[in-house]
Design goal:
204 residues, mainly alpha, 68% helix, disordered N terminus
Length: 204
Amino acid sequence: MGARQPTTPKEAPARASTVVGFYTALLLGGFFWHAISQDTNDIWRLDSSQGWLALLLTPLWGVGFGLVTVQVFRALELRMRWLSELHGEFQGMFGRPQPRELFLLAGASALGEEILFRGAMMDAWGLWVSSAVFALLHIPRRRALWPWTMSSFVLGLALGVMTELTGNLGAAVAAHFTINLLNMAYITRNRPRVHVDRVQPPSG
């Protein structure tokens, strides 16, 4: 018995334009924050002398990190019930977006969050504080899903360290994009690997 859903497309409740607008606001906020505090528009590089070859190669590290991260969480889904519950939450939120919407959502979230958190906030407040605020953006409505917030904190630390090691945002943006794209494609086209029963209210 397969886990794939029917192939009939379903309209996504959360429209891409609304989500992209939110992440565009994050991007602009991070850009202007950095420009005002550092008196420079070069938010992409930690070291302004870094050459184009480094800028072209560092995203490859991010793609590799993203692929490994996705596979680790796929394996953990069979052992950690909250991952399947989170899967169901996002599936209800996004429905079944078209491939172009998936790319748009993954790209907007990766650029918006990385420019704000790793580009501007980490530069101003440091690795730990920026990672903590990044985690706070990922607080779900249900307490049972709070491990997602903790995993976001760890991921924020990893992306921050990656940015410091590579000297630019390329690796972090590529990793973030890879993780979001593959996860959204998987979540919106497959059922959770562990069946989760919805809690029914007691009968009167």
